[in-house]
Specification:
The structure holds 2 protein chains of 2 kinds.
Chain A: H1 10-19, H2 39-48, H3 57-71, H4 77-97, H5 102-118, H6 128-153, H7 170-188, H8 192-203, H9 208-215, H10 219-254
Chain B: H1 13-20, H2 26-38, H3 40-60, H4 70-94, E1 101-105, E2 118-120, E3 126-131, E4 141-147, E5 152-161, E6 164-169, E7 176-183, E8 189-197
Parallel strand pairs in B: 1-3, 2-8
Antiparallel strand pairs in B: 3-6, 4-5, 4-7, 5-6, 7-8
Helix pairs in contact in B: 1-3, 2-3
The chains are: A mainly alpha, B alpha+beta.
Chain lengths: 259, 198
């Protein structure tokens, strides 16, 4: 499987991890190669991709200076790099690989980034963001390859069907169930056709284009339905939260805590 | 020089949804991922998107109870409660003491669709046992039974004896696929076994 296919879909990565399948490491796709080009090239590419959310030019200048300081081994430069990227790296790794051993993975990734910068692999310092992203993706791909390889090599009948469970404890499970009930209330208020649209989109993962074509919807109608359902869910959630708060206050006042 | 990050724009929720479903083009995904590396606001938004998708998947995959209004809802609830009580009484009268079913949990491999699972008949309390060969001798192991969606349906201690760990579920499980999770005293997840209840 091409590493670039292990992209933004954590559900796909989890299936790979749990199925124990997957081919041996494949050559990197262009999107996983280290970024080249200048800052303006990056901005042009982003604009062309219809994704204008790039940083300001001033930030790029700061990165150039930061990279030079890291290369020279200046004290404080690594800490600054860590502060800039650690949360994003942690988020990405957790989303792709789950919360297990996350601190170690973040640390390992950070070490790889710093070592690569010091070896001069970052030729255009203003592309620091893309550079870090590429290294993080490589770390994810390497981890998945290791898990798949270890699973194949294991002959002992050890139960290792471990799926990264986003719900880490019973309390979070209970909260999830509660929120799912609210969603079901929202779904219950919809027509069967509207429920089918949402089922196709969220459960069957059909694209907006396919759903609109097959169900004779305009893009506006489709987006309106989705946003209405989400808004109603938010409304019910806020109501529930305020009810819980009121109940808690009532219990406290009736037990004589507020006097 | 202090680096301050100012973005001209942020990805909207439709872009985040397309990314979460893996449908964003490579070019757009690259830009989005670089953005998320350094934008706390959009990381939070993507986390919310992931969460909402997970909730929707769970909710739409379940049978739906259409809410009724006013007196008709209360009457329906009362009737449902009465029927449920009658069913429980009938089952208790016909089958006062269902014999527990014993399951020696083992792990399996292979198959295009993943591992095979242990199987047991529905409607019985369960006596679960796990080989202790792969776990260190210790007290206070814990077992948890969860549904295929990860909802916990039972949790309790596992006692050791004869080189195995044992646990008794007084309640019977409905038909479906479950996972039995073994936790160490430190709450570390040690093992997971599939269990098909038919």
């Amino acid at each position: 499987m091409n590493p670039s296919e292990r992209s933004g879909n954590p559900h796909e990565n989890n299936r790979l991890l749990s199925a124990g399948g997957g081919a041996a490491s494949a050559p990197e796709s262009p999107v996983d190669q280290l970024p080249t080009g200048t800052m303006s090239d990056a901005q042009d590419a982003a604009a062309e991709a219809g994704a204008p959310y790039v940083v300001s030019p001033e930030a790029y200048a700061g990165w150039v200076e930061l990279v030079e300081r890291i290369k020279s081994g200046e004290a404080g430069s690594m800490e600054e790099l860590y502060q800039l990227f650690s949360k994003g790296i942690r988020f990405y790794l957790c989303r792709q690989l789950g919360p297990q051993e996350l601190d170690d993975k973040v640390h390992d990734t950070f070490v790889v980034v710093v070592q690569a910068i010091r070896r001069g692999e970052l030729r255009e310092p203003e592309r620091l963001m893309g550079f870090v992203r590429t290294i993080v993706r490589r770390q994810v791909a390497a981890h998945i390859d290791r898990v798949v390889h270890n699973r194949r090599e294991q002959v002992d009948l050890d139960s290792s069907m471990r799926v990264a469970d986003p719900r880490e404890n019973p309390e979070e499970s209970a909260i999830f169930r509660q929120r799912a009930e609210l969603i079901q209330r929202v779904l219950g208020e919809l027509t069967e056709r509207d429920r089918e649209i949402l089922t196709r989109f969220y459960l069957n993962e059909q694209s907006q284009e396919q759903i609109c074509t097959e169900m004779s919807l305009t893009e506006t109608q489709f987006r309106l339905l989705k946003s209405r359902a989400k808004a109603r869910f938010g409304e019910l959630g806020r109501k529930k939260l305020s009810q819980n708060t009121l109940q808690a206050v009532f219990l406290r006042t009736s037990s004589g805590l507020f006097h | 020089m202090e680096i301050s990050l100012v973005f001209r724009d942020h990805p909207d929720e439709n872009v985040l949804e397309e990314y979460a479903f893996g449908r964003l083009s490579d070019a757009k995904a690259v830009v989005l991922e670089e953005h998320i590396l350094v934008c706390a606001h959009c990381r939070a938004a993507l986390a919310q998107t992931d969460d909402y998708i997970r909730l929707m998947k769970f909710a739409v995959s379940r049978p739906l109870e259409i809410p009724r209004t006013g007196n008709s809802r209360r009457s329906a609830l009362a009737l449902a409660a009465l029927l449920a009580a009658a069913c429980i009484a009938a089952v208790a009268w016909v089958k006062p003491h269902a014999q527990p079913a014993s399951v020696a949990l083992a792990s399996f491999r292979g198959g295009a669709t993943g591992a095979s699972v242990n199987q047991v008949a529905a409607g019985h309390p369960l006596d679960l046992s796990i080989s202790g060969a792969d776990v260190s001798p210790a007290a206070n192991y814990r077992l948890e039974v969860v549904t295929s969606m990860g909802d916990s349906v039972w949790s309790g201690p596992a006692s050791a004896g004869d080189g195995r760990l044992f646990a008794h579920l007084a309640k019977s499980l409905g038909a479906g696929t479950y996972w039995v999770r073994l936790y160490a005293p430190s709450s570390e997840l040690l093992a997971e076994y599939g269990l098909q209840v038919k």
